[in-house]
Design a protein that fits this description.
By secondary structure, this protein is of the alpha+beta class. Helix content is 25%, strand content 34%. The chain has one helix at 2-23; strands at 37-38, 48-57, 62-71, 79-86. It starts with a helix and ends with a strand.
């Protein structure tokens, strides 16, 4: 149980850190370059982190949805964090 809790906490930390990194990007246009798949994460062996960024652009709205998914072979379900970032 402790090992599973530790793994889940690590996955949550990885997802949160990535979401915060994307939110800190000052250039809205270059934010898309942060969409990546990371299979080697220093200090977190066997974890995989996928950052997906999609844009919604209508006459009323302009925002990007950021979803970070973290997986590990020993975790039964992935950890996902999603946020929306408005154009500024």
């Amino acid at each position: 149980t402790n090992a599973n809790s530790s793994m889940l906490n690590s996955a949550l930390d990885l997802a949160s850190a990535r979401v915060e990194r994307v939110k800190a990007e000052r250039n809205y246009s270059s934010m898309d370059s942060l969409a990546t798949t990371e299979t080697v994460i220093s200090g977190y062996p066997s974890f995989k982190r996928v950052t997906a960024i999609t844009q919604t652009l209508t006459a009323q709205y302009a925002y990007k949805t950021v979803t970070v998914t973290v997986t590990h072979p020993s975790m039964p379900m992935p950890v996902k964090k999603t946020t929306a970032i408005a154009r500024f």
